[in-house]
Amino acid sequence: MANHFGVKVLEGKRGLKLTRENYAIVSNKNSLCRFSRDIYADEEGKTYSDEWCIKQLEDCLKNYDLNMEYFS
Fold first, then answer.
1. Residue 58 exposure: Cα atoms within 13 Å on the Cβ side
2. What is the tens place of the pLDDT at every residue in 37-58?
C-alpha cells in the first residue's frame, strides 16, 4: 500500500502512476445537465456522440502533454 503525505492510499483499477494511457478515460454517458444539442447521440441527451468523445480525448491528451512538458 502506497503512502501519500502520510495517508495510506489503495491502488485503483488503473494503478497509481499517471500515464498518458490512464490520464483520460472518456465515457459516452452524460453525467451533467444537457447544455448543447449537437454533442449528443440521442434526443434525451443521455449519451455523447462519438465525434464529441474523440475530440474530448484529444483535448485531454493535449492538456496532459502540456502539463508534462511544463512540470518536467
1. 6
2. 778 888 778 888 999 999 999 9
